[in-house]
Amino acid sequence: MRSKSAAMAEETIVIIDCGSGNLRSVQKAFERAAHDSGRDARSVVTDDADAVCKADRVVLPGVGAFAACMAGLRARKGLLAALEHTVFVAKRPFLGICVGMQLLADRGLEFGETPGLGWLPGEVRRLTPADPALKVPHMGWNDVQCVSPHPLFDGNGGGDSVFYFVHSFHFVPENEQHLIEVTDHGGPVVAAVARDNIAGVQFHPEKSQAAGLRLITNFLNWKPS
Questions:
Q1: What domains can you pick out in the chain, each with its CATH number?
Q2: Which one, 12, 33, 119, 132, has the greatest CB density within 10 A?
Q3: 3-state SS string over the chain?
Q4: Ramachandran angles phi, psi of 89, nearest 5°
Q5: Residue burial 47-79, b: 16+ Cβ < 10 Å; e: rest
Q6: Is the pTM of this model over 0.85?
């Protein structure tokens, strides 16, 4: 257990570098949210296992292919073990973004089958809109609807708001209790999932202007029970 003085010290938000994505834009969004909310927190982009173990909060962004992102995590010495320790032993809040959320699944079905982290049962499948006029990838602004209230979406219209999406695959969870937000792209598409101290969003909060910054601020304030 950390001392009272340590708990009051500056927080460190670790943004994991697994070799994909514009990590600087994610870092800048977290820095702005911390500044605007008056929170004493710093954001660090790293793939260092020791830094992950010491993190107060962990963010896993990802863009591109599921298999490539998973390979990037596995290629970094000690990173997966550190990540599991921080999330499951130290119980630090975790947020996956886009493919970072998809990696929570048991497996991804892009270019064959790739094992995921297996933190939330389910799989990642290609988007197949019922309306053939709808394009894949799903790209642009889309509204989301609340399925189950969650602190990450406090102040965002009760969980109903508009966020920026860019993806060709989507997470299909086995357990409906893990589903907190959905969007629509020729049928329902998972927009956000959560379990205990673990959460993930399919959209990009760092590109979603005010709604995205509000969600990031909520993550910084989130104290999972």
A1: 4-221 (3.40.50.880)
A2: 33
A3: CCCHHHHCCCEEEEEECCCCCCHHHHHHHHHHHHHHCCCCEEEEEECCHHHHHCCCEEEECCCCCHHHHHHHHHHCCCHHHHHHHHHHHCCCCEEEECHHHHCCCCEECCCCCEECCCCCCEEEEECCCCCCCCCCCEEEEEEEEECCCCHHHCCCHHHCEEEEEEECEEEEECCHHHEEEEEECCCEEEEEEEECCEEEECCCHHHCHHHHHHHHHHHHHCCCC
A4: -100, -55
A5: bbbebbbebbbbbbbbbebbbbbbebbeebeeb
A6: yes
Residues designated as active site: 98, 204, 206
Question: Hey, what amino acid is at 5?
Answer: S
Query: What confidence tens digit (pLDDT) does each residue in 170-197 have?
Result: 999 999 999 999 999 988 999 999 999 9
